[in-house]
Write a structure and sequence with these properties.
The complex is a heterodimer of chains A (about 110) and B (about 110). Chain A is an all-beta fold and about 110 residues long. Helix content of chain A is about 0%, strand content about 45%. Chain A has no helices and nine strands. Chain A starts with 8 loop residues before the first strand and ends with a strand. The chains are: A mainly beta (about 110), B mainly beta (about 110). At the A-B interface, strand 3 and strand 4 of A face strand 5, strand 9 and strand 10 of B.
Chain lengths: ~110, ~110
């Protein structure tokens, strides 16, 4: 699985958009980009994933660059409850690889009132 | 659905004792994962099962750790004998497709 690079921490004002970057310059053509988050003392929570097209769901939007070497997770209107560690993960989905996730350091997002 | 259920939520034991952590995956999910999280090593995969069969146990730290999945609705992670360095939060997760759903974790403290 390709390695990812994320800033260790970010701050965001409540109500504003939070844009979390992730670099994955060695990503392969069949690797997906996944985002999970972990609120303090809880288990990680799935947010969104994508292959090459931009994706949006009720939680967030995922923007993947055309060369797929980087992506941005967007929380359109951050709330205090969005304070968490956000993990960007790149991996292949397939029968032999199962759905193994390799978590890096992630980005600690702090939403301030 | 109640989500992934783990028990106990907290466990305090003494070095040398046997510890058993339990997990009930989401009904219908065919993958089950055990992770461990510590400040030093972050979140790391220990072992995962597909249709109750262990697929990859390369993350299991040593022979003191063992995991079983006797049926589709139950799995255990056992540490025998436990050591202080095993203190961590242990998460169980299950999946049917690409998305993994995590339980609340078991906080283990070995004195």
């Amino acid at each position: 699985d390709a390695k990812t690079t994320q800033p260790p921490s970010m701050d965001c004002a409540e109500g504003r958009a939070a844009n979390l970057p992730c670099n994955h310059s060695t990503i392969s053509g069949n690797e997906y980009v996944y985002w999970y988050r972990q609120i303090h003392s809880q288990g990680p929570q799935y947010i969104i994933h994508g292959l090459k097209n931009n994706e949006t769901n009720e939680m967030a939007s995922l923007i993947i660059t055309e060369d797929r070497k980087s992506s941005t997770l967007i929380l359109p209107h951050a709330t205090l409850r969005d304070t968490a560690v956000y993990y960007c993960i790149v991996r292949v989905w397939g029968e032999t690889s199962g759905s193994r996730l390799t978590f890096g350091e992630g980005t600690q997002l702090t939403v301030n009132p | 659905d109640a989500g992934v259920i783990q028990s106990p939520r907290h466990e305090v034991t003494e070095m040398g004792q046997e510890v058993t952590l339990r997990c009930k995956p989401i009904s219908g999910h065919d993958y089950l994962f055990w992770y461990r999280q510590t400040m030093m090593r972050g979140l790391e995969l220990l072992i995962y099962f597909n249709n109750n069969v262990p697929i990859d146990d390369s993350g299991m730290p040593e022979d003191r750790f063992s995991a079983k999945m006797p049926n589709a609705s139950f799995s255990t992670l056992k540490i025998q004998p436990s050591e202080p360095r095993d203190s961590a939060v242990y998460f169980c997760a299950s999946s049917l497709t690409e998305t993994q759903y995590f339980g609340p974790g078991t906080r283990l403290l070995v004195l």
